[in-house]
Amino acid sequence: MRDEYDIENLNPRKDPLNSKVDLRNIKADELKAMDLDAVDTSPEAPDSEPQRQYYFMAKCRQHVRKEALRLGRPLTCATVTFGCQMNARDSEKLAGILEAVGYEPTEEEAAADFLIFNTCTVRDNANQRVYGRLGEANGYKRHNPGMKIALCGCMMQEEAVIQRLRKSYPFVDLIFGTHNLYKFAELLYTSYEAGRMVIDIWKDTDRIVEDLPVQRKYPFKSGVNIMFGCNNFCSYCIVPYVRGRERSRRPEEILGEIRRLVADGVVEIMLLGQNVNSYGRNLEEPMTFAGLLQEAEKIEGLQRIRFMTSHPKDLSDELIEVMKHSAKICRHLHLPLQSGSTRILEQMNRRYTREQYEELALRIRREIPDIAITTDIIVGFPGETKEDLEETMEVVRRVKFDNAFTFIYSKRTGTPAAAMENQVPPEQVRQGFDRLLRLVQDTAREQVARYQGSVMDALIEEVNGNDPAMVTGRLSNNTIVHVPGDASMIGKLLPVSLDECHGFYYIGHIAE
Ligand code: SAH
Ligand code: SF4
Ligand code: F3S
User: Fold this and answer.
1) Is a pLDDT exceeding 80 seen at residue 19?
2) 3-state secondary structure of 504
3) Domain boundaries, the chain
């Protein structure tokens, strides 16, 4: 869809007068291949989605072209992403639309004509980083008054954030949330027309709009949303409030997307959801996550399948069986523990006990011995004692996590835990956190070193940032390996010899 859009050639590829297309007559899955310059934007916008968004992409494109002609150069855009894989995938959707309307991507935020921050609010430090970056952006805008600044993502779903932005950040042009991301093209156009701050936040949605453009960060791997939202309401967590209720995409949409990605050069996919183990429960024709994996496995040309995240309470025996016999599902399971104290787990509303977690993790290790199990742990949840933390450390010693992300509990307004009275003093949290961190690092180092001297397949992902004579690859179990090589190897699955373990990664060489 992309025009060869240099300044010598700012005209549409086709003569729009000869080839006006009414989007109402185009089927959803044909829209991506459409020439936006041929769209008839004289009638009212269509009501149906995604046709309506393509109509606004065509309108935005006219605006961007006009601006580029006026300035004598193409317009540029930068997308800055905070938070999880889900947000990273959303940013690829934003980038897809920005490119479709004629912006050229740039890494140089300060010089961008359109700068968008896709935000996260899972812990307070995520929010603080956004405010910091916004302050910097205000500086860029003073030098470049034509710059447009937009904010979207999870943080925007919080009323208090919107109030603060309205009051103290008047230079922001466009603000929207997680539920109306699919309307980005329409909102962008509204913002061009309005010439003042545009805010559009929805409380929730049950809508999933398919077939919008996406610009992938990597040509050879991609995230694929299988579900949106979360129904678990862990008592510390804000995600269910900012991402809404759980809804699954239909399997045919997911599998169709994977097939198209594979045809476009993708060899590894990561299926994304806050709790992939409850996939498919709310579909008209229910399907299990394990069932979906089996279907994905059949797709020819696809070499690796990853997924994220698994809630322990919903992990089925069927999933373990499917993983065990699969040639494509990676030997990696991210299984957040959060706490090893049953008392705290109950307060967290996690709905499993320490014993159930251990039994599950150890059973998976028995069934699939070469699997890597990674986890998330929160330190300092209200009421957590030294004894509770000791129990968490005991689980770490028994399960021997291959990697663990440890977080200091962050109070999120509106969650049940924020109203709990027995918040833990910061000094105690800090000490506990440091002890736990040392333990998980020791355990992880030991686990990663298990494979020293063996040969495993690595998907080569990039040229090493520090040493251009080396490339960086990822093993099925998610461990990183650096090997001598060059850019021609990127995207290939190659056998590597794991020569030296350096804590969390290997230095190796291509094995022939
Ligand atoms: N859906 C995923 C997690 C998404 S959030 C799951 O259930 O596993 C990623 C991680 O952030 C969580 O696993 C948790 O460890 C951490 N987290 C969430 N809310 C937090 C809070 N209020 N304070 C500290 N860490 C938090
Ligand atoms: Fe948050 Fe729990 Fe949902 Fe994960 S499962 S997103 S931790 S509420
Ligand atoms: Fe953050 Fe939203 Fe993901 S709060 S962790 S970006 S779902």
Assistant:
1) no
2) coil
3) 23-200, 218-303+311-317, 331-450, 455-510
Distance 246 CA to ligand 2 centre (A): 11
**Do the first three CATH levels of 218-303+311-317 and 331-450 match, i.e. the same topology?**
yes
Cα 121 to ligand 2 centroid, rounded to whole Å: 13
Q: Is 443 exposed, middle or buried (0-12, 13-18, 19+ CB in 10 A)?
A: buried
> Is the CB of residue 156 less than 8 Å from the CB of residue 66?
no
Whether the model clears a pTM of 0.85, i.e. scores above it, the answer is: yes
pLDDT at res. 8: 46
327: CA distance to ligand 1 center in Å? Answer: 30
**Cβ atoms of 50 and 210 closer than 8 Å:** yes
334 CB less than 6 Å from ligand 1?
no
Nearest to 500 by CA among 484, 482, 485, 475: 482
Nearest-ligand number for the alpha carbon of 121: 3
CATH number for the domain whose boundaries are 23-200: 3.40.50.280
- 256, 429 contact by CB (below 8 A): no
Q: Give the tens place of pLDDT for each residue, 286-313.
A: 999 999 999 999 999 999 999 999 999 9
74-110 residue pLDDT tens? 999 999 999 999 999 999 999 999 999 999 999 999 9
The CATH number fitting domain 218-303+311-317, selected from 3.40.50.300, 2.30.30.60, 3.30.750.210, 3.30.360.10: 3.30.750.210
Output the ligand 3 site: residues, CB below 6 A. 83-84, 86-87, 120-122, 154, 239, 242-243
The CATH code for residues 455-510 is: 2.40.50.140
Question: Are the beta carbons of 50 and 212 closer than 8 angstroms?
Answer: yes
